[in-house]
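Sequence in, structure out.
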Amino acid sequence: MTLEEVCNKIQRPINSIIQSECRTKIRSIEVGLRILIENQKIELLDNARLEVATELGAMVKQCYRIYDVVDEWQDSWNFMWGGGLMEVLTPDEKSQYRKFPYETVDYDQYKQQPDFYDKELPHLSFIINEMILLKYASELDNLESWYTERKKKSRIGLSDEKVDDRFSSSKLTKSDKPFEEKFDDVQMELLTNCINEAHLFKISITADILNKFFACKLDTPLHSENNRRIAYFFYSLKIRNYITEEWKAVIENNNLILAPEKEGYLKSSNLSSAQENPPRNHEIIDKYINQLKRH
């Protein structure tokens, strides 16, 4: 098996570890924001960002050659090979990766001892920890943006119930923009191209159809080609704060997407179970969504 093939096999369990660890970290912050008083909430976010900055700063000094590669590819789920990580390893380190039995990577083992695999997979715990922290920092940015918006809404008299809908998986805020998206025409074209190239639905769509989708005013529901890709697409938009936290409920409550094979519409549970790991060809989705911030 080639080094590229081994890296791609190792990538999936590593992505699961990163997602699970990052989700745990951000969930603890969300809980704090929900129960603390105002000044404590600000302190909580400030302290979290300071901790991340301090730890990342120490990692630069520890191994800058690895740090720089991971930092550059933090938005990718294919960084083990596609990010050029192998290019900065020594020949002996590459050989160790090539010979490693990739199927033995286990999340429970990592949780128990993060550096367990480092002897056979040099720098692995460093790589995973850096990626967790970088994605966590990005999530903190999203939370800070949400929190700032929350304070603005509070000042103009919105009720606490409406302001805190972000934490409710069962509620769906009624508004003119159910997905709470703010895409301009260029971004909408990018997303349309992304959806068609990644084959999210059984038909190709237009920007007009996508606008109607986000407005929950489709003439007919779209037919899923692959639930995992759909979930990854919308999850990727959500974690970058482009759409509402409640996107799954919006899709379910408005009957926007038909299931790929069996009869019926996609439910939140279908999309939740499908977003845990990046699907095949997720690089296409990553590519387009990373372009959104440039417009």
